[in-house]
Amino acid sequence: MKSNHPGSTHSKAIHFIGICGTAMGAVAAAMKQHGWHVTGSDEKPYPPLSDFLAAQGIPISLGYSSENLPKDEALIVIGNALSRGNPEVEEVLNRKLLYTSLPELLRTHFLQGRHNLVVTGTHGKTTTSSMLTWIFEYAQKKPSYLIGGIPKNLGQGACFRDPDESRHVILEGDEYDTAFFDKRSKFVHYLPELVIINNIEFDHADIFSNLEEIKRSFHRLLQLVPSEGMILLNGDDVHCYQLGQRAPAPIVEVGFSENAGNRILHPFQKEGRSGFELFDTSFEIAMMGEHNIRNAAMAVSAAHFYNIPLPTIQQALLSFEGVKRRQEILTTSHGITIIDDFGHHPTAIRETLAGLRTRYGKAQLWALFEPRSNTSRRAFFQEMLPHAFGDADGIMIGAVARASLLEEQERLNPTTLVNQLVAMGKEAFYEPSVDKIILKLERELQPGDVVVIFSNGSFEGLGGRLTMRLQEKE
Fold this sequence. Notes:
It is built from 14 helices and 24 strands. The protein has 3 domains: 13-100, NAD(P)-binding Rossmann-like Domain (Rossmann fold, 3-Layer(aba) Sandwich), CATH 3.40.50.720; 105-318, 3-Layer(aba) Sandwich (UDP-N-acetylmuramoyl-L-alanine:D-glutamate ligase), CATH 3.40.1190; 328-472, Mur ligase, C-terminal domain (Protein-Tyrosine Phosphatase, Chain A, Alpha-Beta Complex). The longest helix is centred in the middle third of the chain and has 16 residues, at 290-305. Strands 8-7-9-6-12-13-14-15 form an 8-stranded mixed sheet, with helices on both faces. By secondary structure, the chain is an alpha/beta fold. Helix 5 (125-138) crosses helix 8 (290-305) and helix 5 (125-138) crosses helix 9 (310-318). Helix 7 links the parallel strand 13 (230-234) and strand 14.
């Protein structure tokens, strides 16, 4: 039988089940460019990724069916959102086809022999990996990259260049599990030469029982860093510090504390910009918040390790335009600012609101929150969430996503959350209907107000719909 291994030259057919994920689509296109015959399927292909794949000449089957699978020998890539019961997954198993996960495909086909920089942590992965990628791009290093968002400077979240011209690969490393058949964290597949750990908190309550399980996964990652590599840890995070004590590779702590090897000095936030000093050099970014200063310091430290000149790093950060859905301003119609943000963990919400409070001063600040992630829709954050909204003047809580799939005592209680916020002196409401949220905001909002929408999903298109309503009034 011919080998179907991703690095093999024998079999050149590959099928992606769940092809319309950002990473799956980018890798599928790269495999096509490398001479493979690529097909794929997805439940709901939609632009822009469906258009991108069509332009690459990759056919997509609508919906999942055993008929979608290639009749002849092929390698099957199974997306991590799929599980037993999916008709294509069942057919793969019944036919005993060779299958793999996307992280393992990356490892065997794209990452071997290259300088892999893996950016991890509970918060800030997307922003830090975006900054780092842009620094390498600006320095004309032609990096390949895989990012869980869309950096505005790059216009796409993933790009895999020819290894002959692209020796560096920058990957956002997720601790979430790899696939239904491989419960290890995705990032353990990425052959890291340099690892960044921004911070460690409890998250992903659907697959981790406690913080110790998460730390164990990060510990496994650090065991893979070579002795000539580098580990950059948050020097102000006790969990990162503890992990560093057992790591076999060189470690540098990055942070504000006096003990940090790369100490962040003279931080400031002013008029929508933040800055700091590191390596006796001043850096500035067009983003607010202490968390973004930390993100930038990590990116600077990693780029410095690869000998990118400090003036080049300086100029790259000055020209960094941010990431879509990370404090992204959608409109300023009628003097009302609408901001879209991916935040869904209490710490991320708190840090983002603190940065926006610094930026907008005494403006009326509204926070709209959709409990949608697998952790935020559970009761785990019931006591933490009220304090996360401390810098907001008004808070609206939307419906708990997929609430019927959780037992009542297991899921977040939005009414209790609102009562907790009211007891803190906040103006707070629970409104499961997005239409009614928009109607209420139309009555409440005044020129000068700032609205930030927190969700790791679409919140039923709330940001775009509210923006359209405001613009229609002009």
